[in-house]
Amino acid sequence: MAKEPAYLSFFNLKEEPFTTSPNPRFLYASPLHHVALQKTRYVVSAKKGLCVVFGDTGTGKTTLSRLLYQQFVDDGFTTALLTNPSYPTANQLLRTIMQEFEYPRFGRSYKASLDRLKEFLYQQTTQEKNTLVLIVDEAQTLKPAMLEFLRQLLNYETNEQKLLQMVLFSQNELRVRLRRAKNFSNRIVLKASLENLSLTDSREMLEFRWTVAGGKKFPFTSDGLEAIFDYSAGVPRTQVILADNCLLAAFLKKQKQINQSLVAEVAKDQEIELAT
């Protein structure tokens, strides 16, 4: 078990407020995160097929994917989450999907396994009236052949609905590839984009995490918050890393407030330069 940071008792916290682990409890839903959630939930609930959420590194895609996964499970949907989809072959991706859906009835060949998955999707959707969802994080790592395989799965449908609902979370580099993969991109029903936070959203995100962790008196001054924003350029992950290091620095100095000067000192130690 990992040892708790020494600053927890100093700031009267129950847990770490600024961890980079993708815990859905700590996800601050900015207006763009909220829109992404609503779009993905609409596509899945209406059984329309494919939704893609784009965003640069550190904008909260992975945490959002975990939250969405939990929400779909709570809704009673059969949901699979792939966190590392860079499989070398379609057969390996197929077998992983079947395992995640707890249906490892593999055939003797790739086609036989694919037929069994199609039969499973049809039976679950039309007879059991179930909703099956595949969430893929880090979708920019999917090889072209894997995108083609997912496109094939999206072809499975009845006259009324898709048999498999799919949500991809990807860095923006996938946008360029999709412009060349017209057969796949034409199947995207809705797109959403996550961007860097504004100063107001940055403040609300840090305060939200502080409250979730059991914090009372928020330690960051106004100029301290502005400094975190300036050094991070609004990237949530950078803000969280910087804020966590600031808590440790404040604890070592035995000071309860974190101002611009302390943030600048921590940023220098972490070799984080002011965003231009």
Output the structural class: alpha/beta
What is the rounded Rg? 22 Å
Gross morphology is elongated
Strand order of the largest sheet: 2-3-4-1-5
In CATH, the homologous superfamily of the largest domain goes by the name: P-loop containing nucleotide triphosphate hydrolases
**Fraction in helix:** 40-55%
Uncertain regions: pLDDT < 50 for 5+ in a row? none
Strand content: 5-15%
What is the level 1 CATH name of the largest domain?
Alpha Beta
- What is the overall number of helices? 12
Provide the succession of SSEs. HHEHEHHEHEHHEHHHH
User: What CATH architecture label of the largest domain applies?
Assistant: 3-Layer(aba) Sandwich
Q: What do we call the CATH topology of the largest domain? A: Rossmann fold
Largest sheet: 5 strands, parallel
Give a count of the beta strands, DSSP E runs of length 2 or more.
5
Count of domains: 2
Mean pLDDT: 95
Q: How far is the first residue's CA from the last residue's CA?
A: 40 Å
Structure write-up:
The chain has 276 residues and is of the alpha/beta class. The protein folds into two domains: 7-26 and 197-269, Helicase, Ruva Protein, domain 3 (Orthogonal Bundle); 31-194, P-loop containing nucleotide triphosphate hydrolases (Rossmann fold), CATH 3.40.50. The chain has twelve helices and five strands. It has helices spanning 7-10, 31-45, 61-74, 90-100, 110-127, 144-154, 173-180, 182-185, 199-212, 222-232, 236-253, 260-269, and strands at residues 50-55, 78-82, 132-136, 165-170, 188-194. Strands 2-3-4-1-5 form a five-stranded parallel sheet, with helices on both faces. Helix 10 (222-232) crosses helix 11 and helix 10 (222-232) runs parallel beside helix 12. The longest helix is centred in the middle third of the chain and has 18 residues, at 110-127. The chain starts with 6 loop residues before the first helix and ends in a 7-residue tail after the last helix. The mean pLDDT is 95.
